[in-house]
């Protein structure tokens, strides 16, 4: 089901209903419980993304324990990171049917189970299944709801809220690295993973905090968005045509689905009223039937929303700018992951290990990354600033740094470039905001699931590709050059599609005038 005009925040000229009576917004929007949602998302990023950035500690333990090649062992970490993001579209289906709270709590249990089972693994290939797949899917089931809930609860300060919540990645990288180092030294890596599994059960608590907004509250938020000049200025205007054309189809599908749902529930209620004269046993059966009917309706509605978003007439893929966004995501994330994976080896090649041990370059990226997310979020929320333009400028800065990094052969030069990489990569906090502006709040879960799936593919194959290039050339320079050029291709797609989108309506109006 696609976004209506209220979802995307555009004005299509019919504001009579909006202006007829004032709407009192829910106090939880942009305040109150919304900050508890930010806290929950912050903790999720610490426990999931922070733990994944600290997997280098466990990777060394696995190399020593199983005596396998570095390439094979590294796939355990790559699978965990990649699957966390790749399962996004399927987690969108779970959110549509079970809600963010239920999906996140189930994911917390699955993630903890993956850590515990991995503590008993007897080979690297078992770790592929227990840690890479099981813990990875559990992480994805918690990560996507944490991002979506922040988008639902915030309107005026969306970019700042997403920035604050995602800073948990940087904090988690420090905390989890220190924790895993201590646990491995004191108890061994198997007991360390068992303890980490127990800690991961706190993800269930984070999921419990994700209190859903009522449909009425979401409608009020959409009305506020359609009235807000600030959000009209920030949203990429080139997606208006696509959203308008497909919004009607989505609303018709929704009305058809609701009529079918009312019929199912009505039959259950009729059966219950007819059975009141029966025994208590038959009444219990009728209540069970009604409960199952309501559950069936919920699942049908969730699946219909998920299916129409991907494959229906109102598919997200009819939005060309969103498709360009997906192509960009396929190339972007590896440019951020590759420095984290290969910088230590580059430092060793340049004989800079002594300076790097004092203040690691990866730590510089992580620290500045925290400030970058918050600062870019604050800038994007300014009334006179376009989130889309901030997002593009940060991407240009990052790709320039990726192409420049191989030219730096001193610690100071590498430190400056790494600081710029950390700051400009703070645009990750703007990705949910840009996605919501493109497709609307109603489709945010499914759309952002596609985006992080593309990021997951990039994270899964990017570092091994860089290692393969090194095996051929015996240099990491070409790895950064190729990653940077592919990243530039993705940015060009983001720039070209808006121009095409704006040009098409102009050409159409010219043809109509000639007729």
How is this structure best described in words?
Residues 223-233 have a biased composition (Basic and acidic residues). It is a multi-pass membrane protein. The chain crosses the membrane at residues 33-55, 75-95, 102-121, 127-148, 160-180, 192-210, 321-341, 361-379, 386-405, 411-434, 446-466, 478-496. It is found in: Membrane. Residues 223-280 are annotated as: Disordered. This protein is mostly helical and 515 residues long. It folds into 2 domains: 27-227 and 302-312, MFS general substrate transporter like domains (Growth Hormone, Chain: A, Up-down Bundle); 315-504, MFS general substrate transporter like domains (Growth Hormone, Chain: A, Up-down Bundle), CATH 1.20.1250. It contains 23 helices and no strands. Helix 21 packs across helix 22. The longest helix has 38 residues, at 477-514. The protein is globular and about 80 Å long. The two termini are 35 Å apart.
Condensed summary:
The chain is mainly alpha-helical. The protein is built from 23 helices and no strands.
Largest beta sheet, briefly? none
Give the N-terminus to C-terminus distance in angstroms: 35 Å
For the record, the CATH architecture of the largest domain stands as Up-down Bundle
Strand composition percent: under 5%
Question: From N to C, what is the helix and strand string?
Answer: HHHHHHHHHHHHHHHHHHHHHHH
Unreliable stretches covering 5 or more consecutive residues: 1-23, 228-254, 503-515
Mean pLDDT: 75
Record field, number of beta strands: 0
> Shape from CA axes?
globular
- Provide the number of structural domains: 2
CATH topology of the largest domain: Growth Hormone, Chain: A
Radius of gyration: 25 Å
Question: What is the CATH C-level name of the largest domain?
Answer: Mainly Alpha
Percent of residues in helices: over 70%
Total DSSP helices: 23
Fourth-level CATH superfamily of the largest domain:
MFS general substrate transporter like domains
Question: What structural category arises from helix and sheet content?
Answer: mainly alpha
């Amino acid at each position: 089901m696609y976004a209506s005009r209220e979802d995307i925040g555009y004005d299509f000229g019919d504001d009579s209903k909006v202006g007829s009576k004032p709407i009192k917004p829910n106090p939880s929007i942009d305040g109150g419980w919304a900050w508890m949602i930010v806290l929950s998302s912050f903790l999720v990023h610490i426990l999931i993304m922070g733990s994944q950035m600290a997997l280098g500690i466990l990777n060394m333990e696995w190399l020593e324990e199983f005596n396998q090649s570095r390439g094979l062992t590294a796939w355990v970490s790559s699978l965990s990171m990649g699957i966390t993001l790749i399962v996004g579209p399927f987690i969108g289906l779970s959110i549509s049917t079970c809600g963010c709270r239920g999906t996140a709590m189930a994911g917390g249990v699955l993630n903890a189970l993956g850590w515990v089972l991995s503590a008993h693994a007897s080979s690297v290939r078992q770790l592929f299944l227990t840690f890479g797949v099981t813990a990875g899917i559990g992480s994805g089931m918690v990560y996507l709801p944490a991002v979506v809930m922040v988008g639902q609860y915030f309107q005026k300060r969306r970019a700042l809220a997403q920035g604050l919540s995602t800073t948990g990645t940087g904090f988690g990288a420090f905390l989890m690295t220190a924790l895993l180092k201590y646990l491995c030294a004191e108890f061994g890596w198997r007991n360390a993973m068992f303890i980490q599994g127990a800690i991961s059960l706190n993800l269930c608590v984070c999921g419990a905090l994700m209190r859903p907004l009522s449909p009425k509250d979401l409608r009020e938020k959409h009305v506020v968005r359609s009235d807000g000049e600030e959000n009209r200025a920030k949203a990429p205007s080139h997606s208006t045509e696509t959203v308008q054309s497909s919004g009607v189809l989505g609303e018709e599908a929704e009305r058809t689905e609701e009529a079918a749902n009312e019929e199912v529930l009505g039959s259950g209620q009729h059966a219950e009223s007819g059975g009141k004269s029966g025994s208590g046993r038959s009444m219990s059966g009728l209540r069970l039937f009604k409960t199952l009917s309501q559950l069936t309706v919920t699942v049908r509605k969730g699946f219909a929303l998920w299916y129409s978003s991907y494959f229906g007439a109102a598919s997200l893929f009819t939005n060309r700018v969103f498709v360009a966004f997906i192509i960009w995501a396929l190339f972007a994330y590896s440019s951020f992951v590759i420095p984290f994976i290969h910088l230590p080896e580059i430092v060793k090649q340049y004989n800079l290990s002594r300076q790097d041990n004092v203040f690691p370059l990866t730590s510089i990226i992580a620290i500045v990354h925290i400030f970058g997310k918050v600062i870019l979020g604050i800038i994007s929320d300014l009334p006179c600033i376009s989130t889309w333009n901030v997002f593009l400028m940060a991407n240009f800065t990052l790709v320039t740094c990726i192409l420049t990094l191989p030219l730096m052969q001193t610690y100071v030069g590498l430190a400056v470039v790494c600081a710029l990489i950390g700051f400009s990569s703070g645009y990750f906090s703007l990705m949910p905001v840009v996605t919501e502006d493109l497709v609307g709040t109603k489709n945010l879960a499914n759309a952002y699931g596609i985006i992080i799936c593309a990021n997951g593919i990039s994270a899964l194959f990017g570092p091994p590709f860089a290692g393969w290039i090194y095996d051929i050339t015996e240099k990491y320079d070409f790895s950064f050059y190729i990653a940077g050029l592919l990243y530039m291709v993705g940015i060009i797609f983001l720039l070209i599609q808006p121009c095409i989108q704006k040009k098409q309506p102009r050409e159409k109006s010219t043809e109509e005038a000639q007729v």
